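Sample A.
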Amino acid sequence: MAERIVVLGIGNVLAGDDGVGPHAVHHFSTHYECEPGAPVEIVDGGTPGFDLSIWLYETRVLFVIDALASGDAPGTLRVFDREAILAAPPPPRVSPHQPGLREALLTAELAYGVTPDITLYGVTGANFELGCELTAPVQAAMEESVARVVEALRALGVRVTRRSTPLDVHAWWEGTSP
C-alpha cells in the first residue's frame, strides 16, 4: 500500500455552502504546513464525479471534507468512517458530485483490490444558492473540520505546524482586485 495521504475538499464553490470542501483545503494550505517531504497532498477536488476514484488509488489515508444536506442544523459537523460510508444507501443521482464517495469506494475495491483508510468530514450547509461565500455557521464548521484533519495527520506522525502568519493567497474562485 502506498504511503500517500490525501486531504480532499470537494464541492461547488459557486453554490454557497456546497463549496465548504474547497474552502477547507484553501484554509488548510494558507494556515498550516506539513513538514517537507511528508507524503501529504492537499487537493481541491471540485465536483469530481467519476474522477473521485483516482484519489483512492495508491493512497493509504484519505480525508474528505464535503457539504451535507442532512437536515441537521447548519454548521453541524459529522464524521464518517469507511464502514459508515459504505453502509449508507446510495442516493438518487441528482448532483454533479455523483457518483459519490460510497460508489467510488466500491469501484476502487473492485478495480484495485484495496482502498485507503477514509474519513469524511461532512458539514451541514444552509445556503446552496449561487454565490461563493460560506454562511457563518458553515465557515466555523469548516475551520473545525480543518483542525480535526490536522489532529488526524499528527496522529499519523505527520508534523503539521500552524503558520505564524497565514499566506495571503486568494483562492482561484476569488479572483484578484485591480
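Sample B, a different protein:
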Amino acid sequence: REVTDAETPLEHVAAHFASRARVICLDEMHVNDITDAMLMYGLLKGLFARGVTLVTTANAHPDALYADGLQREQFLPAIELIKQHAELLALDGGTDWRQRNLADAELWHVPPDRRADMSLVATFEKAVAVNRRKRDWITINGRRITVVYWADGVAWFDFRSLCRGPRAATDYLEIARFFHTVLLRRIPVMGAADDDAARRFINLIDTLYDRNVRLFASAAAEPEALYAGSRLTFEFQRTASRLREMQTGEYQAQPHLA
C-alpha cells in the first residue's frame, strides 16, 4: 500500500531491500504462475541494479524454471538476469541421501490413527532438516493450499486439503513438479457421495505417479478397498494398482521428474 501510487512499485521494493541488505539468501527458488514470474523479474532487476548479491537454491537449472508455464516467454528475461548475475553451481553428487534415509520408512498406514501420524512425523523428519520445516499453507496457481508441514522438496497434506475442495489438474501438476516426496494422511473410504473427491484423488495419484513422486500415506483401508461407490469402479482399479506399484522398490528408486 505504501507504493500503490508509484510508477514502478517493484523499484521501491528493491530499494527497500537494498538499503537493508547486500546479500539476500533465498531457499528453494520456484515459480508456479505468471504473476510470480512477472514480479520476480521486476524485483531481481531492481536488486541486481543496486548491487545486491543473491544466493539461492533450486531443484532445477534456471533454464527449467517455470517450464511449460502460461506465457512463459514473459519470464525468459528473468532467467537471463539470473544467468547473467549468478554463478551456477551443480550440487548433485549423484546420491540423494535424504531418499536413502527413507528406504526403511513404512509407506502405507492402516488405520489413520495416532500411530500412523507418529510414523509420518518420523518419515518427514528423516527426509528434511527438522528445524527448517514450515507449517500453514503453500500457494499453487494463485490459490492457498493448507499443509501440515513442508520443506526441502517434501510436503505433508491432509486428504481434505487436496481432494475435498475445488482443485484443478494444474494444481496437482505443480505439486508433483515441486515436491519429490508427498505425505498424505487420513485418506477415507470413498462412497458414491464422495465421487467428486474420488475423482480428484484419482487425478492426484495419476499425476504423482507420472512424475515419480514418492508417496507415504495413512488411510482407512488398503488401496483396493478405498472406493465403495460404483460409478468410478473401473478408474479406481487403476488407481489402486498404481498405489501398489508406488510402494515397490523399483518405483521408489526412480528419479523424480520435476
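Observation for Sample B: The radius of gyration is 20 Å.
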